[in-house]
Design a protein that fits this description.
Distance between the termini of chain B: 25 Å
Oligomer: heterodimer
Distance between the termini of chain A: 37 Å
Number of strands of chain B: 10
Helix content of chain B: 25-40%
Shape of chain A: globular
Structural class of chain B: alpha+beta
Number of helices of chain A: 2
Radius of gyration of chain B: 16 Å
């Protein structure tokens, strides 16, 4: 199993990838997912997080098999 | 209460009439219809905008719109609502979003329609990328009302 991490909009372009998977070992929260994929850099101000298609706070728990997403403020409508 | 994401241009007023005609339970029941149509401008922040691309998060977008509709249902009494939103490449003058609410009386239609649109702007995971003469840029935040 693994954790799927997805990126959208300007963050996707900045990182140069839309998606990746992580081994779940040692990862317990959204912020730990971010630290794992961003080499320990802090979560950028204003970046939004989701777990399994629902908004989540950085401290929210993450489990094996979850889909975690990071994206900038939304601008639809 | 349908939610639709459209990759192709749509005509909101035709959609409104077509949907309404296909809902026999609405017939004779509504005294108010409130519809909001958002259309792409050819300018933003002082620049000419030639085109736009709307990215979204498939699955989460539908989920969030569903939550917003459920919340509106709890706050106001209305008969039905319709939300259609474009995704993909859009040109100036093309509609981006249609939100419509049918209710017995005007207040619920006005209030619920405004609520649906404002919550959509703040919670539905859509992102706009504008094409200018000088290149492309992401829209970083919503404009105030």
């Amino acid at each position: 199993m693994s954790i799927t991490v997805r990126y959208f909009a300007s963050l996707r372009e900045t990182l140069g990838r839309a998606e990746e998977t992580l081994a779940p070992d040692g990862i317990h929260s959204v912020i730990e997912v971010w630290q794992a994929v961003a080499a320990g850099r802090p979560l950028p101000q204003g970046l939004l997080c989701a777990i399994n298609l629902e908004y989540a706070e950085p401290g929210a728990p993450v489990r094996d098999g979850d889909e975690v997403a990071f994206f900038p403020p939304v601008t639809g409508g | 209460m349908p939610i639709a994401l459209r990759p192709d241009p749509f005509e909101p007023y035709a959609e409104l009439l077509e949907y309404q005609a296909g809902q026999p339970r609405l017939s004779g029941q509504y005294g108010a219809t409130c519809a909001f149509v958002g259309t792409m401008r050819d300018f933003n922040e002082g620049d000419t905008v030639r085109a736009m691309t709307l990215e979204h998060y498939p699955g989460m977008t539908e989920n969030q719109l569903g939550h917003i509709l459920d919340e509106a249902r709890r706050r106001w009494t209305f008969l039905d609502a319709l939300v259609i939103h474009r995704v993909g490449d859009i040109l100036p003058g093309q509609p981006i979003v249609l939100v419509a609410v049918w209710s017995a009386h005007r207040n619920a239609a006005f209030e619920a329609c405004r609520y649906l649109m404002e919550e959509l702007k703040h919670r539905a995971p859509f992102w706009k990328k504008e094409t200018l003469a000088e290149g492309a840029r992401w829209v970083e935040r919503n404009t105030e009302g």
